[in-house]
Design a protein that fits this description.
Elements: H1 7-22, E1 28-29, E2 37-51, E3 56-69, H2 76-92, E4 94-95, E5 105-117, E6 122-135
Length: 136
Amino acid sequence: MIDYTNQMHKAIDKVASVITKEITGVPMSFDENKGNSSFYLQPLNDDVVERFASTVIRQYTLLLVYEITTGGQYSENVFKQLSNIAERVKIIFSGPQSSTEDEYFNGVCESIEYERDDDQTKARANITLTVQRLET
């Protein structure tokens, strides 16, 4: 039987932990947005960047969705709420991070896309993140 650790899940857990520690009071889920304001974290890609004799550098791309209920009105205040959270995430993932077995490094906020869904009275910030992990 092959002995392994789910590295993708480890990376996702670490990213979720860093975000919820820095941005308190906003729940995080892995299946859908919940409540009036929440994060949803979805894995997109798992790529091998480089292989060495006993380690591998992998890059994970994640979609972090911050969603709020607008009550039917997409106002300047709604956009400010979305962009304030997006800016904080940008700062969290603004450069090289510490590198240990359980940490990611080189976390980067690749892009932010704002959207509104008038039918569901929701507004979203879709934040694409990439993180790397050194795996042994």
